[in-house]
């Protein structure tokens, strides 16, 4: 506001100097009369930002008065600022109308001057002068306005891009936290479930001999050591910077990878915990993609852990290699009394997520019979594709698959 006031004062002072210097047409009126329209145009400068339309109105009135009593060069020059302010700060429709109107006035002024003076060389001179006074300020304002509007659009676009980047960052953090939670759950649950069941059995039985107790404690110690080792492994992987393995993690100088072909280790662990278990392979075992290997291994691991925590003997695992897919089926018997081990339901969610990440399907629920047992039980069935996905599907799943493959753990990893 202060700059506007000083601008108006400066314009008025320069206009007065021009009037005093004779920059006007003599009409036989006192010089102070010419100051009146000059003051009106300068009043328009004062309100050029807050009321650009009023500024234009004051300028038009002042130029009309000045044309009657003068005209004077100072008033005309200040009027150009009234035009400029109206085109720059006023409505867009007004700016376009001013450009068209001033162009018509410039042409009409040149033609009128030539007709009135009967000299057809005069229109070019008058027309150019009128264009300089009328059209040039409006055109300059329109150019600046366009640049300002474009800058505003770019600023809004930059803000939108920043918001989208922030949303992507939050989504990435949420996805990473979900993946870490899934991996930690699958890594720890198996070992600790076995420890809990074996220790509960040892505490609840008073008739166990020293050899049996020692065997149970040895199994508890083995699960504890393996769980701690795998926990250290995943902590080490999380601390690594820029770790982007493609098919496994480099541990001890070699790349290791969890495979469906090694699920017998998981069955043996369940048997060591006190349950009867069996497993078999149907079809011809073959190499499957790394992501499917990891997903299948973890699904079997979690299903066996759930059987250990909530089910009864026996537990049966069937790995079926079919055309274009591998089908995993884990069945366990259930009894009337449920085990007291707590569960948060994250296991089923994690298994379903793992199957979906590789484009497969997952089902879990009561089953009337198992592969060899004719009795009620609980069954988990996961169908995982083993063929390469199409370009469109691969593009959509590549980021998720790379995240899954990115956390490969040593052989024998637990839940």
Describe this structure in words.
The protein is α+β, with helices and mostly antiparallel strands. The protein has two domains: 2-156, no CATH class; 178-406, Histidine kinase-like ATPase, C-terminal domain (Heat Shock Protein 90), CATH 3.30.565. 64% of the residues lie in helices and 12% in strands. It contains eleven helices and seven strands. It has helices at residues 2-20, 31-46, 52-69, 73-89, 92-117, 122-204, 210-239, 264-272, 290-310, 346-357, 391-406; strands spanning 249-251, 254-256, 277-282, 312-322, 325-333, 361-367, 377-385. The strands form two sheets. Strands 3-4-5-7-6 form a five-stranded mixed beta sheet, with helices on one face. The protein has a two-stranded antiparallel sheet with strand order 1-2. Helix 6 packs across helix 9 (290-310). It is rod-shaped, with a radius of gyration of 43 Å. Residues 241-255 and 390-415 have low confidence and may be disordered.
Write the layout of secondary structure elements.
Layout lengths: L1 H19 L10 H16 L5 H18 L3 H17 L2 H26 L4 H83 L5 H30 L9 E3 L2 E3 L7 H9 L4 E6 L7 H21 L1 E11 L2 E9 L12 H12 L3 E7 L9 E9 L5 H16 L9
Helix pairs in contact: 1-2, 1-4, 2-3, 2-4, 3-4, 4-5, 4-6, 5-6, 6-7, 6-9, 9-10, 9-11
Question: The biggest beta sheet, please?
Answer: 5 strands, mixed
Please report the total strand number as a whole number: 7
How big a fraction of the residues is strand?
A: 5-15%
Radius of gyration: 43 Å
Low-confidence stretches: 241-255, 390-415
């Amino acid at each position: 506001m202060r700059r506007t006031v000083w601008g108006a004062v400066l314009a008025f002072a320069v206009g007065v100097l021009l009037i005093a210097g004779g920059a006007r047409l003599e009409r036989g009126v006192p010089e102070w009369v010419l100051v009146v329209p000059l003051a009106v145009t300068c009043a328009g400068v004062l309100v050029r930002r807050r009321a650009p339309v009023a500024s234009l109105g004051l300028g038009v009135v002042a130029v009309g008065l000045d044309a009657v009593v003068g005209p004077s060069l100072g008033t005309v020059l200040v009027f150009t600022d009234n035009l400029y302010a109206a085109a720059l700060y006023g409505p867009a429709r007004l700016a376009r109308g001013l450009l068209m109107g001033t162009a018509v006035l410039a042409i009409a002024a040149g033609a009128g001057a030539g007709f009135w003076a009967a000299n057809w060389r005069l229109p070019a001179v008058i027309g150019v002068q009128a264009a300089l006074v009328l059209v040039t300020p409006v055109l300059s304002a329109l150019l600046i306005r366009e640049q300002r509007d474009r800058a505003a659009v770019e600023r809004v676009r930059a803000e939108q891009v920043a918001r989208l980047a922030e949303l992507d960052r939050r989504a990435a953090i949420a996805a990473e936290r979900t993946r870490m939670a899934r991996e930690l759950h699958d890594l720890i649950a198996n070992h600790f479930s076995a420890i809990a069941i074996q220790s509960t059995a040892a505490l609840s039985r008073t008739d166990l001999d020293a050899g049996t107790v020692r065997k149970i404690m040895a199994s508890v110690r083995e699960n504890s050591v393996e769980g701690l080792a795998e926990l250290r492994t995943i902590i080490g992987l999380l601390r690594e910077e820029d770790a982007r393995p493609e098919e496994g993690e480099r541990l001890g100088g070699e790349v290791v990878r969890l495979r469906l072909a090694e699920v017998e280790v998981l069955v043996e662990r369940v048997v060591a915990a006190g349950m009867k278990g069996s497993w078999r392979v149907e079809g011809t075992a073959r190499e499957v993609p790394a992501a499917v290997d990891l997903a299948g291994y973890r699904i079997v691991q979690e299903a066996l852990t759930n059987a250990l925590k909530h089910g009864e003997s026996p537990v049966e695992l069937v790995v079926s290699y079919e055309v274009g897919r591998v089908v995993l089926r884990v069945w366990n018997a259930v009894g009337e009394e449920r085990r007291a081990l707590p569960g948060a339901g994250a296991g089923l969610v994690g298994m379903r997520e793992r199957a979906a990440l590789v484009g497969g399907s997952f089902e879990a629920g009561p089953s009337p019979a198992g592969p060899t047992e004719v009795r009620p039980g609980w069954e988990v069935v996961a169908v995982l594709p083993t063929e390469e996905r199409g370009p469109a599907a691969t593009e959509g799943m590549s980021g998720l698959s790379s995240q899954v493959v990115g956390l490969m753990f040593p052989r024998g990893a637990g839940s």
